[in-house]
């Protein structure tokens, strides 16, 4: 029987935090007693260039090291990428496409042609309101956890707190916790 992992594919532009989000998710999964991997794929390595990040999470050791081709969820951190057919490649219609956007799910459906589940969250706006920076990765992790429950939200909160508390003030850590919680609460799914 082939091994089955929970597979995540992130689409973003370099510098938007997809690699960090993928890493936080993998570490939260490890803390929750699961096995996990996280790795990015860059095209032209420059800020603003399209890039991908991947996760595999499982109750058994993860032995596959290739890119995710049949994701259980796809997260799009930059809605200017919506015309790219790679976004929904391999994504079954019963799996969610999650987009950081102010658009309604119907508009995302029109732009992508995806007929399955579409979830939207205004992650950049939430990040600007809470963190005062337009880096939406923490918000997107909250949305992912809400839609999949692959790891407990508390595990992600602990991991983000541990990672940020060494670099930033308590105020910044708390702002990220609020952003994470809002992503969890404010994601809307259609389909």
UniProtKB/TrEMBL annotation:
Residues 14-185 form the Pyruvate/ketoisovalerate oxidoreductase catalytic domain. One of its GO terms (molecular function) is oxidoreductase activity, acting on the aldehyde or oxo group of donors, iron-sulfur protein as acceptor. Signal peptide: none annotated. This is Pyruvate ferredoxin oxidoreductase, gamma subunit. The keyword Oxidoreductase applies. It comes from Geotoga petraea. Gene3D superfamilies: Pyruvate-ferredoxin oxidoreductase, PFOR, domain III. InterPro entries: Oxidoreductase_gamma_subunit (IPR051626), PorC_KorC (IPR011894), Pyrv/ketoisovalerate_OxRed_cat (IPR019752), Pyrv_flavodox_OxRed_cen (IPR002869). Keywords: Oxidoreductase, Pyruvate.
